[in-house]
């Protein structure tokens, strides 16, 4: 499922996945703001409503009834994702609508999921933004795991922080269970570790590494470590209203580092903007939000930071 | 192998955990003894019991309880905590040299030596250990209290016995460090961490960071001049001390995270509807609404709020529960058994707490609850400690 294996085209897009566990934290809004900021910078961007069970991104983009949806691609009405792209009101920004009318897509089969992933890789764009659904179902996590820029959105509320952390935690165990593949005993061990109060006393990912090392072999433990360390989610705190609110993402970062051994990175906060709520209820495209809006400027800063980090990483490799 | 991770685990019926984190206060020695009968090997519980005995002026029993706690701590690889228990024991009754030597031998022979801090305590000679123990001063901090400030003199080394602190750089330092490309993320300090910028011992030093308690914390400290004096007499102490401060130890020991933290117990309050079935031939069916303050896959603790009696509640009774998970699933219906219940005084009057062990969960329910609980007690505690200190406003 790793889309990098399928790359080769010079213009394979960078994939951003926006997840976060809890519904209502503003994943769709953040997706649109980031996509819009990328397009603003002249980057050809496609935003995809990957909330396969409850697609509604199009309404936030001011589209009442989408003429083409992901369903048309799955059911082979169109051969490529490119064909179902809809132009938005912003230049350089296209939209692929979700498929809420087909409930079965909330749980697509492996082949369907694979078809979507293959389609993503071949999209003629610089960036593809996946607006993921709520929860931590395997399908949500699998799309999150294929992203170049996996982003977790959290709001400064206890339940959101808890769910966002749960999302990160489940992402790791999902990756490991995929790695375990057809090894039932390893899979069982991973499942046990995932239970926060398991009887085997595995409380941290470190404990799991130790258990794998003891019960299997050191090489496998190293492979598992590498798989975990390769997960580097970015964190965005949405709807911040003051300076302290901005720390919501930091909580997940600190707990994830200590218990899951992963280095999540804070991308910053997007400040609460009441105008956005109004625009959503009026079905006005969020892309029309004033450039002076704090939320829009925050999103632009976040996009710039991601692009800068990517450039720095590339320079490091080149040198 | 004895490593410091192996503390008695979070108990799924919650009562032990709640005593340990202070959210359930047991003021009766008899009641505490009953609990110790169930969990005889928990050193932290034993230490709490000893503290209670001191409060009740039952000093003879307290001496024995501290002594047993020290042994149990050593058994769990918690050398520092064992030493603190022993200091408390000996503050009530001075030890003989024989008793002192016995403890030293126990620590040396049985104490874990996997981390530099464990080695620090377990590798000392008798005279060295006595020198240090006599000079350790206990410090207790409440959540939010600051113990170190940037640029203040660093006059002490602190050892964290229990609780969690956050170490942060000052805003000025952060700006400078950011320019220099140095990571300035806050660091969490927990049981068996140390702090205090004490080297060089013979020159004044200052703190580079602010350190604030993010839960109730117990520390022991030694003043730098006292330590310098001790190191002059016993150079081996300085050698052991330098080992703890070696930078590569951070990776090897993962700092505090070698031990399970027992910070303030938090949990996302979850509304729960409870109902108990009627017993055969009796008219005693009941239903209550409460808040599940401590929810896990194994069980939960429900606070039924202020009420005058525990009407209808029986240990071992089967109950039906509906949990409001505040998500798409909304309500999760489960069954379980009452394993304990008690009245606790609160500001609003007597509150009834019930511990419930859940019956075996269906796979789908288990998955939902796993997702909702989102982590172990340690993860949850840390999330809520950080929430209180970093985000929550009054």
Order of helices and strands of chain B: HHHHHHHHEEEEHEEEEHHHEEEEEEHH
Strand content of chain B: 15-25%
Helix content of chain B: 25-40%
CATH level-four homologous superfamily name of chain A = P-loop containing nucleotide triphosphate hydrolases
Question: What fraction strand of chain A?
Answer: 5-15%
Named CATH topology of chain A: Rossmann fold
**Considering the protein shown, what is the CATH homologous superfamily of the largest domain in chain B?**
Jelly Rolls
Architecture per CATH nomenclature, i.e. the level-2 architecture of the largest domain in chain B: Sandwich
Let me know the largest β-sheet of chain A. 8 strands, mixed
Read across the widest sheet of chain B, the strand sequence of neighbours is 9-10-11-14-13-12
Overall average pLDDT of chain A: 85
The helix/strand order of chain A is EHEHHEEHEHEHHHHEHEHH
Greatest interface (CB-CB under 8 A), with counts per chain? A-B, 36 and 38 residues
Per-chain topology:
The complex is a heterodimer of chains A (319) and B (394).
Chain A (H helix, E strand, L loop, with lengths): L13 E6 L7 H14 L4 E6 L6 H4 L9 H5 L11 E2 L5 E4 L13 H12 L5 E6 L5 H8 L3 E6 L3 H23 L3 H11 L10 H11 L2 H12 L4 E7 L7 H13 L4 E7 L2 H8 L12 H25 L1
Parallel strand pairs in A: 1-5, 1-6, 2-4, 2-5, 6-7, 7-8
Antiparallel strand pairs in A: 3-4
Chain B lengths: L14 H6 L8 H10 L4 H13 L3 H17 L3 H14 L4 H14 L5 H7 L3 H10 L1 E5 L4 E3 L7 E7 L2 E5 L1 H10 L6 E3 L4 E2 L13 E5 L3 E7 H10 L1 H11 L3 H5 L16 E7 L9 E10 L3 E8 L11 E7 L6 E16 L2 E10 L4 H11 L3 H15 L3
Antiparallel strand pairs in B: 1-8, 2-7, 3-6, 3-8, 4-5, 4-7, 9-10, 9-12, 10-11, 11-14, 12-13, 13-14
């Amino acid at each position: 499922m790793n889309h990098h294996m399928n790359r080769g085209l010079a213009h394979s897009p960078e994939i951003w996945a926006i997840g976060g566990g809890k519904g209502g934290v503003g994943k769709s809004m953040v997706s649109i703001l980031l996509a819009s900021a990328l397009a603003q910078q002249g980057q050809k961007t496609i935003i995809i409503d990957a909330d396969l069970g409850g697609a509604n991104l199009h309404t936030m983009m001011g589209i009442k009834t989408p003429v083409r949806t992901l369903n048309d691609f799955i059911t082979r009405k169109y051969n490529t994702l490119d064909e179902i792209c809809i132009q938005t009101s912003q230049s350089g920004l296209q939209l692929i609508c979700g498929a809420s009318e087909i409930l079965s897509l909330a749980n697509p089969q492996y082949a369907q999921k694979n078809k979507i992933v293959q389609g993503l890789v071949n999209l003629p764009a610089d960036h593809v933004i996946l607006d993921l659904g709520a929860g931590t179902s395997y399908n949500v996590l699998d799309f999150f795991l294929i992203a170049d820029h996996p982003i977790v959105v959290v709001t400064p509320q206890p339940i959101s922080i808890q769910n966002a952390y749960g999302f990160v935690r489940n992402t790791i165990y999902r990756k490991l269970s995929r790695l375990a593949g057809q090894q039932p005993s390893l899979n069982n061990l991973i499942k046990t570790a995932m239970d926060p109060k398991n009887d085997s006393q595995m409380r941290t990912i470190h404990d799991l590494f130790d258990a794998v090392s003891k019960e299997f072999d050191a090489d496998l433990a190293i492979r598992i470590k590498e798989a975990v360390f390769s997960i580097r989610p970015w964190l965005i705190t949405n709807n911040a209203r003051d300076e302290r609110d901005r720390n919501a993402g930091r909580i997940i970062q600190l707990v994830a580092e200590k218990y899951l051994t992963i280095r999540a990175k804070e991308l910053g906060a997007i400040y609460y903007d009441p105008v956005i709520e109004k625009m959503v209820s009026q079905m006005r495209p969020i892309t029309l939000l004033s450039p002076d809006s704090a939320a829009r400027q925050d999103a632009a800063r976040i996009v710039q930071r991601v692009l800068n980090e990517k450039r720095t990483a590339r320079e490091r490799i080149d040198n | 192998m004895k490593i410091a991770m192996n503390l008695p685990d979070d108990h799924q019926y919650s009562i032990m955990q709640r005593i340990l984190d202070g959210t359930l206060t047991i003021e009766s020695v008899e009641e505490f003894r009953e609990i110790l009968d169930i969990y005889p090997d928990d050193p932290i519980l034993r230490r709490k019991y000893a503290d209670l005995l001191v409060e009740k002026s039952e000093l003879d029993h307290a001496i024995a309880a501290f002594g047993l706690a020290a042994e149990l701590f050593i058994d769990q690889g918690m050398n520092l905590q064992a030493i603190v228990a022993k200091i408390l024991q000996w503050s009530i009754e001075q030890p003989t040299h024989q008793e002192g030597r016995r403890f030293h031998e126990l620590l040396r022979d049985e104490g874990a030596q996997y981390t530099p801090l464990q080695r620090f305590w377990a590798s000392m000679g008798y005279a060295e250990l006595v020198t240090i123990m006599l000079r350790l001063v206990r410090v207790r901090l409440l959540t939010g209290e600051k113990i170190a400030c940037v640029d203040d003199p660093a006059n002490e080394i602190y050892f964290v016995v229990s609780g969690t602190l956050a170490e942060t750089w000052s805003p000025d330092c952060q700006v400078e460090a950011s320019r220099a490309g140095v990571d300035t993320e806050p660091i969490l300090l927990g049981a068996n961490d140390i702090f205090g910028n004490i080297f060089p011992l013979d020159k004044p030093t200052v703190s580079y960071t602010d350190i604030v308690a993010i839960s109730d914390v117990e520390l022991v400290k030694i003043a730098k001049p006292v330590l310098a004096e001790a190191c002059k007499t016993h150079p081996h102490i300085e050698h052991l001390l330098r080992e703890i401060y070696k930078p590569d130890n951070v990776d090897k020991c993962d700092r505090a995270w070698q031990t399970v933290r027992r910070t303030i117990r938090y949990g996302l309050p979850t509304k729960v509807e409870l109902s108990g079935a009627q017993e055969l031939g009796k008219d005693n069916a009941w239903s209550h609404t409460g808040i599940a303050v401590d929810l896990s896959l194994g069980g939960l603790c429900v606070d039924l709020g202020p009420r005058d009696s525990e009407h209808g509640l029986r240990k071992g009774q089967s109950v039906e529960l509906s949990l409001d998970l505040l998500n798409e699933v909304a309500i999760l219906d489960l069954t379980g058994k009452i394993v304990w219940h008690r009245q606790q005084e609160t500001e609003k009057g007597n509150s009834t707490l019930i511990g419930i062990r859940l019956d075996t969960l269906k796979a789908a329910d288990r998955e939902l609850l796993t997702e909702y609980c989102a982590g172990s007690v340690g993860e949850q505690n840390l999330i809520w400690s950080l929430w209180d200190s970093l985000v929550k406003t009054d």
